[in-house]
Amino acid sequence: MWGKLITATALTLLAFTSVAVAQSGQPPFATRKIDGTDNVYLFRYQSHQAMFVVTPMGVIATDPIGRFRPEAVTTYLSEIKKITDKPVKYLIYSHAHFDHIAGGKPFKDQGAIVIAHENAKKHFELAKKQNALLDSVVMPDQVVGNQRMISLGGTNLELIYVGRNHSDSSLVMRLPKEKLIFLVDFIPIEALQYRDMPDNASPIELEDSIKKVLALDWDRMLPGHPNAGGRLGTKKDAQDHLEFLQELSAEVKKVASTKCIDAAMKEIRLPKYEKWGNYEQYLPGNIERYCYWWTQAY
Ligand SMILES: [Zn+2]
User: Fold this and answer.
1) Are 184 and 223 in contact (CB under 8 A)?
2) Cα(96) to centroid of ligand 1, in Å?
3) Tens digit of pLDDT for each residue in 169-193?
């Protein structure tokens, strides 16, 4: 969620979130089996989550969530080990943002094939030239364009690219039999978009990608962050989020020529959503993004 750039603010936010989790009395990590499935699990470490699927032939894991905290990765692997002694065969990145995908080396060391969207690999190659921290990111062995099916031990997992949204490399991971999707950061459950929605070409592209997700066949969504009390999402959540974006877009459009950017960021309110996560913190940034769109078409 925290994007590609390492900033003091992002680090502060990360620290703050960790403290908030500790103060809420929640244990630092947890693994739960998803009701109604034989082999699908959601691993949470502080405020990040990753799905893994256990099959007789090995494990399909997602996002290492180990940025600045290698202990998250060792915990993740020991949680898997409690369920199976089979190795992780695949490690799939949800998108290119380091808070979700850093720390994959222990997976790679046990032979996992690392898979990401093709744009993610381009980001990593570029970042490698300018950022030593990329040492903690394992390069993908294989890349996906628009779609790919992973099959292992009787489980099929579909990887689907639905266009640019919160990143230009987001893969929706769909388990067709279970009608589940693992989807990270671009449809927060009862929560706002991150800051000014960086890393897309337009907020309209983000809306379009949510429409594509709504058109897929699924019932429940496993998210990359435990918003709304950590529950799973539904199609109604995706629809509600799309409506939030469309309502915000309409409000910004009305005042774009007179108030964008600064006055709009201060004055626009959407009271209907004030109970949503990060409302006060991110509403101005979400407004800023639509201001760029409605004044300059980017
Ligand atoms: Zn992200």
Assistant:
1) yes
2) 7
3) 999 999 999 999 999 999 999 999 9
